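DATA SHEET
Item: assembly model
Revision: 1
Owner: S.N.
Input lines:
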Amino acid sequence: MPAEDGTLLSMRGIRKAFPGVLALDDVRFDLRRGEVHALVGENGAGKSTLIKLLAGVYIKDQGSIRLEGKDIEIADPHQAQAHGIFTVFQEISTVPNLSIADNMFLGRELRKNGLIDRRRQIEETGQLLASFNYRLDPRRIVADLNIAELKMISIIKVLNNEVKILILDEPTASLTDRESGILFENIRKLRERGAGVIYISHRLEELKSIGDRVTVLRNGQYIDTLQLKDVPSIDALTPLMIGKELKTKFPKAPVQVGRPLLQVKGLTRKGHFYDVDLEVRAGEVLGFFGLVGCGFEEIFRSVFGAETYESGTVAMFEGGGFKPVRKDSPQSALDLKLGYIPRDRKNEGLIMPMSVRENIAIPSFRKFSANLLGMIDRRRLNEEVKKYKELMDIRTPGLDTLVETLSGGNQQKVVIAKTLCRGGSVFLFCEPTAGIDVGTKVEIYQFMNRLTSQGAGIVLVSYELPEIMGMSDRIMVVYQGRIVKELQRAEASQDEILKYAFGSGDRALPGEGN
Amino acid sequence: MQKAAVSGSGVFAGGLKRFYKSVGMLFFVLVALIALMGVINPQFFTFINGVTVLRQACFLALVAAGQMLVILTAGVDVSLGAMIGLCSVIAAMVSKQFGAVAGWITPLLVGGGIGLLNGFVVGRFKIDSFAVTLGTMGISGGLALIISKGLTIYNLPLSYQSLAYINLGPVPLPVLIAAAVLVVMYFVLYRLRFGRYVYAVGGNREALRLAGVNVRRVMLWAFAGAGILTGIAAAMLSARINSGQPNLGKSLMMESIAACVVGGVTFKGGVGNLGGVVIGVLFLSTLSNGFDLIGVSSFVKEVVVGAIIIVAVVLDKYKK
């Protein structure tokens, strides 16, 4: 059917599954000529997956994509670009050790007598940048640019093509006003030419100013498409994004809050987080919520010592008083009973080619080999490991099974088990249920209940608002590396948390940016 | 093939079965090779020749065990060959001055010292071990030539060579020493905390650091261990020729890597077991003995060892 109604792109019945997760389920999406169409949803709603299907990064399992009335298949990024579909991703892909000009012409170098014509590349890049009213020396090495400059380079590189559909994933997150201005100016130009723009952003004010329609996704499903001018405020979209199924899945038990166990004061790493003050008390779950890029993961990686910080202090209550946790020293944190359950199981939590047994035991090896040679008391080790395997109900054929063969949920249990085996009074749970099936999620929540009932303190860091609201006793909202709001469990509402998370709370926005 | 077997966690349970699973195929290749050698040259099956093979194998076994420590940490030590020459030269001079026993012990200290240097730089600065050990390879080789003025050092105390020539019953002492060292190595790798950390560093360095383990120290001692084991080999090799040679044992660097990869130790780190390496050592030694019997030149041997490394790595990739 020809597209006389101005439809440029039409996606129907799109389905995409990853191992363990149904990322997109029967999703539809339309884009008209000259339209800016916003895509919104919570973290993990499927926005990124959808645009990656269009960009050829992923291949859809099912469904149809029609471009200008013709069915098309997009098998790889080259095909996407051949169809005129260009994407500016959140993560920037440039070759850092090359110059701006070299990056602009990467893969289509200008040649003269078989050699690369550097001079012409630099000239043309300079002209291109100038045509966007953006001044940068094309000879500069990309690694030396700041994030905003990098982003603009990626945007300009894309705009230098015959663009039919431009996809922007959080484009303004790191841009200054001037740079955003250049971007919006060019979006207008594209519209006049009849191109379409798909725009993912958490900044809803921005959407209203440049967008026409908005499509809401939730949990990989299509929820609704609205005219942006009919959306009175951000709050109107929140229920669509969150859904109603709140709190039921969260077996939160009442708690007895005791003395402070972890104290963090003035923790700062410029460009990442600023002046973080917090206290975790025995028996409580302190929830941290923010949007992707808010920087709360870095905060807790630094608290534990996995990453560094510039100023501030971290102290644990241990042996009758507060003792400082040494900077950059996971060993010090663990010795003072501060445990860390990392978000990234594969790279930080588990040693994949080793057995379940050894993964659980490795942080505690000293405990099992307290002799001069460091000889392992295998019987004691076995007993302990078995205890935690049963406690966490890890489902594995045996303790000698390699962790890499376990399911995501069981792997996560191994990570928790090894942290518990080492022992702790405060546990930092960083997105403990990411990529895990619902059943295991509930088990992990129950496990957190059990820890708090035994007097441990828990920090729960999560991008999932229902989880944060369901499990936390107190909630702290992080925006651009700062704690912008603290809420008690009883007073916390979705709308209010999201308002602060989007940076539109009553607190003045920090000027630094990052 | 079950990957569980290769991880080195095999000690904890079902040793034999796992051993078969991980190195079984290689074992049959070795048996086939031995059979083939026997058919080509019946002399191969004599008892004397068997002892000869082991005698050759014991030097490689020590260096390969050291190389294994390093490859398990996801590195490689290319300085081990040149290290032997330096150890040999210094040992020769020391034994002339201070007697045979001092000359036997010195190589351990020299090898261990260079290993510590390797391990310190690799761990402290998080540098690729290839670059660092390439540097110490140059340094060791050069120093050996400077100290010896490029010449073989003769006239060692007569007792020095006894390290290589004493037999206990029918078994030469070097073979016994190598066997004893391998037993210790097994104990270190599987029963000591340190050994498990070596596997863990290679498996996931960051996870080990976040488990509160001093990763630098693990790297330091893995390289030092490789140096010490190589030092033992250097002492026995020098005793065997009863002289100090700056170019002694150079080929053992490549052969040690070959023995490891053939034995299932992967360059990615954290995977491989000692049994595999021992079979890898026997495989290479049998091959080289066979070549000697057939009369193939040692130059050809070098080509074959190089090819074996490539084939083993490619096969390892497709095992998954």
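QC remark: The radius of gyration of chain A is 25 Å.
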